[in-house]
């Protein structure tokens, strides 16, 4: 569950795809190393305050960059069917689950002021569901979408 793999297809050559993916990672302030037809991130931006520029992006409709929510990303290109290139994206979501745990703990602490136990349980359940959707689901969707948009010919 910590690692998520996406397999994307592109009409670009593998070399052009690696070049474009490197540009995407550079714009997102991700440090990386290229080894042939693969890219491995060495450091992703850590966002502590909501005012940091690395948290925001103009490359998607939400306006958030998915890269601060992940611990690392590995991108590998290989020949696909016909003239296409297959891009295998492996995402390390360790930091995502740390953010999720922090959000749930914060909601638990905030729920101690609720008047009844039922209210506190409902507050924690709803807050946990929202945190899961925003941290895990949305960040994975945005990452896949940004890489797909980067690879469009």
The CATH C-level name is Alpha Beta
Spans of at least 5 consecutive residues with low confidence: none
Global Rg: 18 Å
The domain tally reads 1
Read across the widest sheet, the strand sequence of neighbours is: 1-5-4-3-2
Decide which structural class fits the backbone. Answer: alpha+beta
The biggest beta sheet reads: 5 strands, antiparallel
CATH superfamily, by name, is: Kinase associated domain 1, KA1
From the N-terminal CA to the C-terminal CA, the straight-line distance is 32 Å
The averaged pLDDT comes out at: 88
The total of helices stands at: 3
Which fold name corresponds to the CATH topology?
TATA-Binding Protein
Architecture (CATH level 2) name: 2-Layer Sandwich
Helical amount among residues, as a percent range? Answer: 40-55%
Shape descriptor? elongated
Beta percentage is: 15-25%
**Order of helix and strand elements from N to C terminus:** EHEEEEHH
Strand segment tally = 5
